[in-house]
Amino acid sequence: MFKHILRSLTGGPVTEASPGPSETALAELAGRVDRASKARLGRSLSIRQVDAGSCNGCELEIHALNNPVYDVERFGIRFVASPRHADVLLVTGPVTRNMADALRRTWEATPDPKWVVACGACAIDGGVFAGSYACVGAVEAVLPVDLRIPGCPPRPAELLAGLLALLERNATAP
Amino acid sequence: MEEGEDTLFGLLARIGRPVPDHRPWPRHVTDRAGWLTLIENLGVADWSLLGLWGEPAAVHAALRAEAAGEVAVISLPCPEGRFPSLSAVRPAAIRLERAACDLFGLTAEGISDDRPWLDHGHWGVRHPLADAPEQGATAVPYPFLKAEGHGLHQIPVGPVHAGIIEPGHFRFTANGETVVRLEERLGYVHKGLEGLMRGKTPTDAARIVARLSGDSTVAHSIAFAQAVEAALGVDIPPRAVWLRALMAELERVANHLGDIGAVCNDAAFSFLLAELGQLRELVLRAADSCFGHRLMMDRVVPGGVALDIAETGPKRLFDLTAELRRRFAPLVAVYDGKASLQDRTLSTGIVTTGLAARFGAGGFVGRASGRGLDARKAPGYAPYIELEFEVPVLTEGDVNARLWIRIREVEQSLSLIDQILRRMPGVPRGPDGITPPPLASMPAGRGGEGMALVESFRGEILTWVRVDADGTIGRCHPRDPSWFQWPLLEAAIEGNIVADFPLCNKSFNCSYSGHDL
């Protein structure tokens, strides 16, 4: 144990450099973030992740954001346990009909100002599950969506770039 | 088995007639009397239930006689939409029968629990996969099972959980800190996957089944591909067989590394999560550089694999296994040496060997409770038959035992990866220097039925498929190992404190999506 700690102290951090904010995400977010929210949020984001029917692939990669290699907390982004503490809902999955109600209620429990990020192919347009009797489809059919992060699943670096764009836009909003 | 009693094959030959074109194991069709004889025999025989699934006017059950190594499917036509329930003799059938009722409108007569399971009343249709689905549906309150007594209170949890986890509902009844009863309610992530696969070509359906459970995408893709290849009698290139196994072992290692860390984190020992999370990341990056996708989704397809390993791949993977061996062992020593951590995992969440056997639980849940089955060994499939590895088994059945099984499986899989890399057949070179991917073409205009048993990191997957004469999927049922593990979690937590539930739950890590279909 002590050997590990010593090596961590002498070996330097394993965390990689930031990928920088995604340009496409910045463009999508233009005009979405106003002065009021800037004042409220400063340079931090609290994210409540909601699985609305995902295959769990997106969750695996969102989890990776918390590992020491990506270390999302260094940017002031953290995952919170309750929607009442959240600024952002990070929604995955093709919104199953069995989850639509829970998703809506989670959104209602989130205080304003709030953003919804549709994460992954299913959340954006239903993915391979579009058209099923059991799925609503895109998250947008249930909630207003501010940002889309494509991928099946998105890589952690892509997730990070999208979230950084949200942070960036938020910090530089007029 | 006593002398004079039927073997599984013997009984099926007596009560049913074999169906042609079902591979590699036999399928028999029986009548109501034969089905009742089967139930009688299941009461005394130790055959395990491998799966149970419906069709618009039939029900199928897959069974295995472990000692004799016999696997078979038995089918009962039910034109009136009713069949005698297997739940009294095989409790693991209960949720499968409830699902068959929700999807196909098949009533299991005599089932001890006839509440809906996957259908929460939101689909706008009842029995969506039946020949004539009923339009319109309303959600009705779900009656949870009762637990009554002085001072008991309920704790509802979910479907939206506190962490980055899949959705499901847990209803705890507790006496102070102690859990008296846990009841699971699942089905929240039901996506109608079986319905979506109908009428698709095997290649298109493979993209859907690859998204049944993201953490087992390789294993589910292999199971589906093997079932389709069995149904159509397709031989795949030998190199594809080895590449599939290589991806499957990488997937196993990645999941085990992540979960071992996560279990320790649930006991507030975040150091191991941080360290093992880095190792998991190494595996995913190696997978990405070898196969172009971190989770290796859509790489295994019917007929073989969609692409060969990158040229630099073998070297990269040899380096990976060497680095993992160097870094994993000292971390295991940390786990082994922390009394305060083991205080949380030892004797917590016990699944008895009897219960694991009754539910036919596979994977690390079964193996930590004395049930040492592994589909890679029995019935076994290529290339594992030619590889050397051990299947670890313990009998304590607690969180600690499940962790140790996973630790040992990481070690075995690292050895398997090295063996596969050394023994894999070489890249076939075309005369013009172009190397085609190891992929056999699928025959058109031919049908058949096939099934496969494939070991995912979580346990044994059964996939059954019927390919219609026009070459499209008529019916496919992928049965995730979670079906037989979720019920045991309810038993494991009983008598433990509420605060130990995350620990127990993570030590099972059942799939919600894989189960909900």
Automatic annotation (TrEMBL), chain A:
Q: Which keywords does this chain's UniProt record carry? A: 4Fe-4S, Cell membrane, Iron, Iron-sulfur, Membrane, Metal-binding, Oxidoreductase
The domain of life is Bacteria
Pfam families noted in UniProt? Oxidored_q6
Gene3D superfamilies, alphabetically? 3.40.50.12280
What is the E.C. number? 1.6.5.11
The cofactors required by this protein are: [4Fe-4S] cluster
Q: Which residues form the NADH:ubiquinone oxidoreductase-like 20kDa subunit domain?
A: 55-166
The entry lists its GO molecular-function terms as:
4 iron, 4 sulfur cluster binding; metal ion binding; oxidoreductase activity
**What family does this chain come from, according to its entry?**
Belongs to the complex I 20 kDa subunit family.
Q: Report what the protein is called.
A: NADH-quinone oxidoreductase subunit NuoB
Give the species: Azospirillum doebereinerae
Q: What is the lineage of its organism?
A: Bacteria, Pseudomonadati, Pseudomonadota, Alphaproteobacteria, Rhodospirillales
From TrEMBL, chain B:
Q: Does the keyword NAD apply?
A: yes
- Domain NADH:ubiquinone oxidoreductase 30kDa subunit, residue spans: 78-129
Q: Which ranges does the record mark as transmembrane?
A: none
Report the GO molecular function annotations.
NAD binding; NADH dehydrogenase (ubiquinone) activity; nickel cation binding; oxidoreductase activity, acting on NAD(P)H; quinone binding
Q: Where does Mg(2+) bind?
A: E194
Per UniProt, the keywords (alphabetical) are:
Magnesium, Metal-binding, NAD, Oxidoreductase
Tell me which InterPro entries the record gives.
ComplexI_49kDa-like, NADH_Q_OxRdtase_suD, NADH_quin_OxRdtase_su_C/D-like, NADH_UbQ_OxRdtase_30kDa_su, Ni-dep_hyd_lsu, NiFe-Hase_large
Question: Any keyword Oxidoreductase?
Answer: yes
Q: Where is the NADH-quinone oxidoreductase subunit D domain?
A: 278-426
Concerning PANTHER family, the annotation shows: FORMATE HYDROGENLYASE SUBUNIT 5-RELATED (PTHR43485:SF1), HYDROGENASE-4 COMPONENT G (PTHR43485)
**Protein name as it appears in the record:** Hydrogenase expression protein HypE
